[in-house]
C-alpha cells in the first residue's frame, strides 16, 4: 500500500483554497510527513489496524461551530467521520462513539443516517451491528476535564480521532481561521486528548489549517506559514495555532478528504473493499 498511499496523500492535499490561504497546505503536509516518516494516510491506517480489536471502541470527534456564520457547525468533518466509521466497523469489527458540541449532535445523527448507520445510546450500540453512539461534550472547561476522565474510564477507547475539531492555543483560546475567538461555543475536547495521551491511547488529528486538534504537532510550521497563526484578531493576541498534539497529525486540504484517504488505506491493507462506503 505504500505506493497507493503516496497517491492518496497527494489526492487529499490537492489545493482548493481561496487566494488568502493558497499555497499553505503543502508546507503543513511536509512538516507532518517529516514527523511521521511515511505517507500520513498509511501511518494512520496502520496504527488503527494495530490498535482496534473486535468490539473495541474508537472515539471520533468532529464539529466546528462558528456563531453567526455556522451556528449549527461546518459541514466538513461528519462525512469523513462516517467513512472512517465504516472502515472501523466493516474492516475491524470495532465500535465507535461520536463526540461533539450539543448543537452539533443533530448534524452527526443525520450524517449517520445518510451513511446507513443507526444511532443509539452507548449500551445499545455495543449490541447492535453497524450502529454508533452520539454524545455531547461540555464547552465549560471544568466540566470538560471531568467528562474527559469519565469517558476514558467508561469507554476504554483504543483510539481517538479528531477531524476539523478546533483546538486551544497556548493561552487556552479557540479561534476561527480568520482569528476570532469562538471559545464560548467550542467543546473542550483537548482534555480528552490530554487524558488519552497520558494513558498511551492512540490519537489521530486531521486538520486543514492549523487551528484543529492534532496540528499542535506541527505548531512551529503552522505559526510560520498560516495567516493569523501567530497573532489573531481577538484580545488574546496569541494566534490561532493550536498546541494540542496527536500521535499522528494528518494534513489535508479538506478534513473529510483526510479521513477518506485513511479509510481507503484501511480497506487496501485489509483487502476488504466493503470497508469503504
Keywords:
single chain; 277 residues; alpha/beta; inorganic pyrophosphatase (n-terminal core); seven-stranded parallel β-sheet; 7 strands; 40% helix; 13% strand
Task: Please explain how this structure is put together.
The protein is of the alpha/beta class and 277 residues long. 40% of the residues lie in helices and 13% in strands. It is built from ten helices and seven strands. It has a seven-stranded parallel β-sheet, with helices on both faces. Helix 8 links the parallel strand 5 (159-163) and strand 6 (202-207). Helix 4 (78-92) packs parallel to helix 10.
Overall body shape: globular
Poorly predicted runs are none
Instruction: List the total number of helices.
Output: 10
Major beta-sheet overview: 7 strands, parallel
What structural class do you assign from the helix and strand content?
alpha/beta
Mean pLDDT: 96
Number of domains: 1
So, CATH architecture? Alpha-Beta Complex
Topology, number of strands: 7
Major sheet: arrangement of strands: 3-4-2-1-5-6-7
- CATH H-level superfamily: TON_0340
What's the gyration radius in Å? 17 Å
Distance between the termini: 19 Å
Helix content: 40-55%
The fraction of residues in strands falls at 5-15%
**CATH topology call:** inorganic pyrophosphatase (n-terminal core)
Multimeric organization: single chain
State the name of the first-level CATH class. Answer: Alpha Beta
SSE pattern, N- to C-terminal: HHHEHEHEHEHEHEHEH
Amino acid at each position: 500500500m505504500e505506493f497507493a498511499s503516496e497517491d492518496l496523500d497527494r489526492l487529499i492535499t490537492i489545493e482548493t483554497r481561496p487566494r488568502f490561504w493558497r499555497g499553505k497546505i503543502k508546507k503543513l503536509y511536509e512538516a507532518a510527513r517529516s514527523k511521521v516518516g511515511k505517507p500520513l494516510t498509511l501511518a494512520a491506517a496502520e496504527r488503527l489496524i494495530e490498535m482496534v480489536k473486535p468490539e473495541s471502541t474508537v472515539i471520533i470527534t468532529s464539529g466546528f461551530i462558528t456563531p453567526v456564520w455556522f451556528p449549527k457547525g461546518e459541514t466538513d468533518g461528519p462525512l469523513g467521520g462516517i467513512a472512517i466509521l465504516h472502515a472501523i466497523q466493516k474492516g475491524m469489527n470495532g465500535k465507535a462513539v461520536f463526540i461533539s458540541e450539543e448543537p452539533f449532535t443533530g448534524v452527526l445523527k443525520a450524517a449517520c443516517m445518510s451513511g446507513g448507520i443507526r444511532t443509539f445510546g452507548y449500551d445499545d450500540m455495543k449490541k447492535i451491528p453497524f450502529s454508533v453512539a452520539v454524545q455531547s461534550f461540555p464547552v465549560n472547561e471544568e466540566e470538560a476535564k471531568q467528562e474527559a476522565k469519565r469517558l476514558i474510564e467508561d469507554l476504554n477507547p483504543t483510539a481517538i480521532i479528531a477531524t476539523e475539531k478546533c483546538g486551544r492555543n497556548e493561552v487556552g483560546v479557540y479561534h476561527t481561521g480568520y482569528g476570532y475567538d469562538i471559545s464560548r461555543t467550542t467543546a473542550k475536547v483537548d482534555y480528552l486528548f490530554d487524558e488519552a495521551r497520558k494513558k498511551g491511547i492512540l490519537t489521530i488529528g486531521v486538520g486543514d489549517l492549523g487551528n484543529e486538534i492534532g496540528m499542535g504537532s506541527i505548531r512551529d510550521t503552522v505559526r510560520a506559514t498560516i495567516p493569523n497563526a501567530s497573532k489573531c484578531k481577538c484580545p488574546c493576541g496569541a494566534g490561532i495555532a493550536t498546541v494540542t498534539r496527536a500521535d499522528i497529525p494528518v494534513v489535508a486540504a479538506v478534513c473529510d478528504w483526510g479521513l477518506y484517504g485513511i479509510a481507503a488505506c484501511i480497506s487496501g491493507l485489509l483487502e476488504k473493499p466493503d470497508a469503504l462506503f
